[in-house]
């Protein structure tokens, strides 16, 4: 892709990203917890595993909340198309 082919995101695309931010942030927290578990050079504590489980629950709640609103989700699909 050349620089001239790139355009700024539209207001609708930015709104869609902002709408999805709780899920994006929850997934990043989950990724951080998983990286700690995978890269640990010590024995993992119960607290490490609890952090992973907590992050998983947070990501699932955020996804459920996002996709539980059919009208909002449908508008996001229209923007992406």
The total domain count is: 1
The amount of beta strand, in percent, is: under 5%
CA radius of gyration is: 17 Å
Quaternary state of this entry equals: single chain
N-end to C-end Cα span = 20 Å
Low-confidence residue ranges: none
Portion of residues within helices = over 70%
What is the count of helical runs? 3
- Could you describe the largest sheet, including whether it forms a barrel? none
Query: Can you tell me the overall shape?
Result: elongated
Structural class: mainly alpha
**Series of H and E elements:** HHH
List how many beta strands DSSP finds.
0
Kindly state the mean pLDDT as a whole number? 85
Could you describe the 3D structure shown?
- By secondary structure, the protein is mainly alpha-helical.
- It has one domain (11-80).
- Helix content is 77%, strand content 0%.
- The protein is built from three helices and no strands.
- It has helices at 11-39, 46-67, 70-80.
- The radius of gyration is 17 Å and the shape is elongated.
- The two termini are 20 Å apart.
- The model has no long low-confidence stretch (mean pLDDT 85).
- Pfam families: DUF6284 (PF19801).
- It comes from Plantactinospora solaniradicis.
- This is DUF6284 family protein.
What is the compact description of this entry?
Helices cover 77% and strands 0% of the residues. It is an all-alpha fold and 81 residues long. The chain has one domain (11-80).
List keywords for this structure.
single chain; 81 residues; mainly alpha; 77% helix
Which SSEs are present, and which pair or pack?
Blueprint lengths: L10 H29 L6 H22 L2 H11 L1
